[in-house]
């Protein structure tokens, strides 16, 4: 910007010089005109004096003294006119010289104005190029920021999709029901786990109960005979009755715990109904939450 201001100052100075040169040129022309007018006046006076000298027949009788005085006056006037003519010619020459100098100064001022304008145009073009480069850099920076933000958002979304509840698992405890659903902070969140069928759940419960009962009976009476639910379901009714008679005859009466005796087909149906009720309640709660 300082270069532009300096160029503008130079242009103004050159314009002022040009105006001054034009005024000096006009003054020189005026002086030349005055000198030419004086030359014309002198030449006209000389012509009139010559005409007067050419008319002796019409002359007037004068004395010698009067004639000599008039002659001296005419000579003085002639010399004065010549001097004036020389002075006028000198003025004309000076005017020509000043005119030449003024024209030279005008040309120099014009050339300086052209150079200053060219420098100003170059400075403005550099400023414009700098502004364009700045705009290009800002546009590239905006694109980079937008692309970087989109990349960050995509990475965050992918990480959230891969580990949706990693932080929640670290902070809160996880409860899993029989259908493989996670219960955290009294909210139901599905977990990608294989669901167990009713038969698998019952088999697990039966195996746990049988292991517990086997251990309990082994602690109390090591000689008692155990019959699993699968064996009970696999054998016909006649075989069960015959096995019971054999046990009574052998004096080995089968004593099952209270929980095992009550656990039959009625208990299985009861578990099935409970499981269906829980499943219905779970689906209803999920629908309510999705509706909210």
Automatic annotation (TrEMBL):
Compositional bias of type Polar residues: which residue ranges?
155-167
Which keywords, in A-to-Z order, does the entry hold? Coiled coil
Ranges of biased composition (kind: Basic and acidic residues): 242-256
**Region Disordered: what ranges?**
146-173, 235-259, 273-292
Report the coiled-coil segments: none
Domain of life where this protein originates: Eukaryota
Fetch the PANTHER family from UniProt.
Answer: HEAVY CHAIN, PUTATIVE, EXPRESSED-RELATED-RELATED (PTHR32054), OS07G0677900 PROTEIN (PTHR32054:SF4)
Instruction: Please give the family membership noted in the entry.
Output: Belongs to the WEB family.
Can you say what this protein is called?
Myosin heavy chain
Species per Swiss-Prot/TrEMBL record: Solanum tuberosum
> In the record, what lineage is assigned to the organism producing the protein?
Eukaryota, Viridiplantae, Streptophyta, Embryophyta, Tracheophyta
Gene encoding it?
A: LOC102601945
